[in-house]
Amino acid sequence: MASDFYFPYHFFISFQTNLKNNDTYLFKTDRHFLTIETFSKDKRGPYERRTTGAAGEIHH
Fold this sequence. Notes:
Layout lengths: L11 E5 L7 E7 L2 E7 L7 E6 L8
C-alpha cells in the first residue's frame, strides 16, 4: 500500500448543471491533479480551465 494518496485510474465525469447557464463541467483526474473544464454556452469563450494541486483545492 502506498502511503501517499493518488488517483489510481485516469477517468472523467461530465454532467450538466443549471448553476451557470447550463454549462457543462468536465472533471478529469491525472494522479494528483484535478482539472475542471467549463464549457460555456455564452460569449465568455469556449471554456475555462482550472487545475488543482489537490482535490478540493480550487485555484481560480
